[in-house]
Structure formats: C-alpha cells, structure tokens
Design brief:
The protein contains 13 helices and 16 strands. By secondary structure, the protein is an alpha/beta fold.
Length: 477
Amino acid sequence: MSLKSCLLAGVFAAGLLSTTASAQDAATVAAAEALRDKALSDNIAFDFTREITTRFGPRPAGSKSEQDAAAWAADWMRANGFQNVRIESFPLVGWERGEESIEIVGAHAQKLVGGALGHSIATPADGIEAEVVRVESIEDIQAAPAGSLSGKIVYVDPGQMVADRQGSGYGPRSRIRTQGPKAAADQGAAAFVIRSVGSDHDRMPHTGTTGYHDGKVPLPSFSLAAPDADQLNRLIEMGQPVRLKLSSTARTYETHSQNVIGDITGATRPDEVIVLGSHLDSWDIGTGAFDDAAGGGITIAAAKIIAEAGRPARTIRVILYGSEEVNQPVSHGNGGGAYVRGIGEAIEKHIVAGESDLGADNVYAVGLPVGTLNSDFAKIAYRVLAPLNIEEGGEERFGGADVGPLARGGVPVFGLKQDATRYFDLHHTANDTLDKIDPAQLRQNVAAWTALVKLIADSDVDFRAIAAAQTGSAREE
C-alpha cells in the first residue's frame, strides 16, 4: 500500500507511483512498526509523569507550582534533544480554594464531604445557611415557580454517572456544573450544590471549573461526594426541610500561565507542523497524574522515540498547554487559544493535531482526520495499530480543549481514544495520583502515538487539502 496514494480525491492509481516512492513508503511502514514495538518496552512516559507529579504535586492553573513545572519541563526537553524549546506566557485569573466546609444543620446535624467548584466565589465570612431545594437538571431550575428558589440552596442531582469506555455521561453533567449556578442565581438562589461529576462512589468530592457569566461567577458553588449526595437525598426524602450551611474563603488573583513548546524539527519539510498536545496544569486536590501529566509523558515519549531513530520529514511539535482546567472571565481559549493567537498566519502550515487528555489506560480506537477514512493511509494506519488492539474509530473533528482552537482554525485533528472506564472515578479528585497509572497501559499509549505520528510525519498526505475538499463537497450537497 502506498502512503502517497491518499491525495485530494483519493484517485491516484497504484501504477502511477514510482518504484522508488513505493519503496520509501514500505520503509516508513516498517519503521513505524519497529518504533511501535520499541515503545512497548520504553519507560520515558512513566518517568516523565513521575517526575512532574512528585516534584511539583498539584499544579493549579497560574500557580507557582504550574510555573515551576513549566520551567522544569522546558529544561527536560532541551536536555532530551528537542529544538526551539520555549515558554510562552499569557495572562490568567488564578484561583485558590482556601478553607471550606459543608454541613447539615438542625435536627440531623452532621458534616458532609464536599468542596468548592473551581473559580467559585467565596461565601460571606459567616457562611451561608439556607433550606435545600433538590432538582435534577438546569431545566428544573428554570421551570421552578417564581420565588420558590429565592434565598434557597439549589442542589442538583442528575443521578450517579455510570462508567463506560467513552465517558459518555460526563458532558451533560459538566454542563450543569458550569451553567447551573447562573440558572440558580437567576431564580434568586443563595448558593449552588451539585452531586460530584464522576463515576466513583468514594467519599471525596470532584472539583472542576464552574462557569463565568458576564465576567463573574454568580454564586458560591460546591460539589458533594457521591456518598454524601446519597445521604442528603435520604434526608430530603424523609419529608422534612433540610438546611445546609456552606462556607468558603476561595479567592481569585491576577497571574499568568504558559505553554511549553518543543520541536523535533523536520528534515525535509520542517515548515509542516504536527502538533501533539496535552496540558500541564491540574486541580489542587490530587497531583494530576491521570489529568494530565500522563498525556504530557505520552506525547513527549512518542516524539523522542521517533527522533532517536532519525529526524522525521515533517516537524513534530509537542505542546504542554497551560490552564486547560479553568474557565476565565473572558473566554480566549486559555493555553490553546493563546497558542493560536501567537502563531498567526503560520497556522496554515499546521497540517494536523492530536491531544492526549483522557488518562493513561489503553487506547482502544483511532479517529482519523476528516476525509481520510477510505484512503490507503487509513488502511495502513489501521494495519500498523491493529497489533495494539486498536479499532477503527471513525472521523475526528473537534480534537479536545487544547487543540480545539487549532481545529476551529482549520487544522485537521486525529484522536487516539483511551478507555475512560476508570478515568471519571479519578479525575478532579484527591485520587488522581501516580499509583493509579498502569505502566503497561501507559506504554501501549506511547506505542500507538509513536506509530501513528511516524506514519503522518513521513507521509505526503495533505490532510488540510483533503479536509477542505470534504467540507466543500458537504456544502455543495
């Protein structure tokens, strides 16, 4: 099969390819397979993840620990053969948790386990005490009779998230986390509480950012650990009013975050850039091993393994993005947006991008750029990835939070889809620590990234032209 046969309309006949080109393509495939197998015994990703999480612990966006981790990661890249290594800073509103508590007051007084959502505003110094009103959705808040939520604590329980490989329950619940406080504030509520957005049953809350609306977070906003949400539900179902007292000293402050960027410069087409993305920041209550130090380890390891075998044709650019985890008063895309603004017209030379940000468990499917599913390139990629038990995963259109701004700017994206069955047990919790990473599964990730990126880097496939042609055809239809 020829990597060069996947052109704009996919109409090149095999007979039009020269013997030399076919030999070159066969060599690329063999090299990708060899590097795939090498990666299965390589520990770069685990070592990098261990160093980041151990040296710097939690890395909240804009914090000194995130900034120190960025400086260390840049030095690591320089020492390990990356070129053009730089740190690009951008302004950020940081957030500190402070002290916090949630308790039931009155006849059934007891402390609950919960925590403020990221970027929540503080309560008054003496806290907020009010009756709880339980609902299941934002729509329930919006449909509440006028005045019925005024002065109350709105508690949203959409039900326990069920774990699955795709993490399908997360999106609808994260929408409640970011949009729910605004809906509650519009109804006159005093505060907002949500069942933790996660699939675990541990007695620890999930954090995660809430949303800014008109430049501010409208209410003090909290999450409850799943067992404590269940406890609160049982008390409410007893039929008597339940009162909560919430306290938080959270604060925001002006700071900066940064992207750490390093290149493996292409040998023959250095101006054609492949972006491998992850994010360096984490939440403050764990050490961010799954979310997302592992993603940095995976992408750095893949680029390094490829480089050690000889320079690829195209440039491979690893970006450790800053401040992925938090919303801001004005949405500029955080680290991903800052990168796109910084490159300007050079975005036209970015041929494809991918992101690793769903933990460290096995890749089970590959999503290829728009327009390539029936191409010879796809057939080769599937064949090379099959020994890793990776399935065909359709087209990838949106990337993730970090490479999303590139995708919206016209850069095609690919996705190596990780098994998320465990991910939402761990992410945004105190349980997101190094011991949860399975080194063998982490190495399988590196092998998948190494093989696919090697194929992309040494191919002549014009992913941008193919995607543009596909988009144009869709518009015409």
